[in-house]
Specification:
The chain has two domains: 4-209, Jelly Rolls; 228-301, Jelly Rolls. It is built from six helices and 17 strands. It has helices spanning 14-17, 54-60, 94-100, 131-139, 143-146, 203-209, and strands at residues 4-12, 28-34, 75-82, 88-90, 109-116, 121-126, 147-151, 157-160, 166-168, 172-179, 185-188, 228-233, 237-250, 257-268, 271-274, 278-281, 288-301. Strands 1-2-3-10-5-8 form a six-stranded antiparallel beta sheet. Strands 12, 13, 14, 15, 16 and 17 form a six-stranded antiparallel beta sheet that branches. It has a three-stranded antiparallel beta sheet with strand order 7-6-9. Strand 12 (228-233) and strand 13 (237-250) form a beta hairpin. It is globular. 40% of the residues are buried. The structure holds zinc ion.
Length: 310
């Protein structure tokens, strides 16, 4: 797949320097690696469908995606380079987004930490016990008491359900797998100024959707000797980490799979893939013979009768 890049105030240079993407700006925050979202849509890079936009492929070749009933490609894979702190934010679920955001999907997302600086942290969750306390703490700017900040390290995985207060902080490189949605409610932006102004906040919508109290959802990867470990499964997607050392077989039993090479290089049925390459393995693809030394993150959708979620 051919990615799309996004310039952001908090973005840095690592997508160029570490991943070798051919981008010029010093503030590229996001690589939308596999995306059919209208805010940044990718296309096929090479082969039979070269140059075709992913949304077009989804409409014209449903057989590649397990013959879905949904009206849109359900997932979005990004690499995020946080050179500065991102705003503290929350996303709605499908029901709230459909009603308040012109039929958009909600946003469930998850993070695999590709790399981070020593002492890096992220924000997940909050310490308010009731909705009244949450409102009071927000209105009085008691951010240090409200926000739950935790240390992270390379290889950590975090599930961010809709309604979860969260923020990626400076010095962190993340692979994000998410629903195909661009709906974010900004709760707090550290009172930063951009061109002399604070960025817009969405306090009332945030208060509508934040889960109170916060419930931590951690999942330990299944114990397995396989090179491929499932990290998480929710109603929207399944996620795996792959550590290829030498030779392996990839069996594709999902409607489709998204794959991202996050380090090293590998051959898949003889075709070379390097760090920073992203691909889709279609429905009913035969087993893939893999060789090389590489780390992967894979995702697959969970369908319901609307084509997303379950
Ligand atoms: Zn988010």
């Amino acid at each position: 797949m051919r990615p799309v890049f996004k310039e952001t105030v908090w973005g840095g240079k690592r997508l160029h320097d570490d991943f070798g993407y051919d981008i010029m700006s010093n503030h590229i925050g996001e690589c939308w690696a596999v995306s059919a979202h209208p805010d940044g849509e990718g296309s096929v890079d090479g082969g039979t469908y070269d140059g075709i936009r992913l949304s077009e492929l989804w409409k014209t070749h449903p057989e590649l995606f397990g013959n879905p009933q949904g009206d849109r490609f359900p997932l979005l894979t990004k690499i995020i380079d946080a050179n500065a702190d991102l705003s503290i934010q929350v996303h709605p679920d499908d029901t709230y987004a459909a009603e308040h955001e012109n039929g958009s999907l909600g946003k469930t997302e998850c993070w695999y930490v590709i790399d981070c600086v020593p002492g890096a942290t992220i924000i997940i969750g909050h310490n308010a016990k009731t909705r009244e306390e949450l409102r009071e703490m927000i209105e009085n700017g008691r951010w240090n008491e409200l926000i739950r900040e935790i240390p992270i390290k390379k290889g950590d995985f975090f599930q961010i359900n809709p309604g979860t207060v969260h923020a990626i902080k400076a010095g962190t490189l993340i692979l994000e797998s998410q629903q195909s949605s661009d709906i974010t409610y900004r709760l707090y932006d550290y009172d930063r100024l951009q061109n002399g102004k604070k960025r817009e906040l969405h306090i009332e919508k945030s208060l509508d959707v934040i889960e109170v109290p916060f419930v931590e959802r951690r999942a330990e990867p299944a114990e397995t000797d396989s090179w491929l470990k499932q990290l998480y499964a929710c109603s929207c997607y399944k996620i795996w980490k792959g550590d290829l050392k030498g030779e392996a077989t990839l069996r594709q039993n999902e409607p489709f799979m998204i794959g991202s090479v996050i380090s090293g290089e590998a051959f898949l049925d003889g075709v070379g893939y390097n760090k920073g390459d992203h691909f889709i393995i279609p429905y009913k693809h035969p087993d893939i013979h893999m060789t090389g030394e590489a780390e992967f993150v894979f995702s697959a959708p969970q369908y319901n009768n609307k084509g997303f979620g379950k």
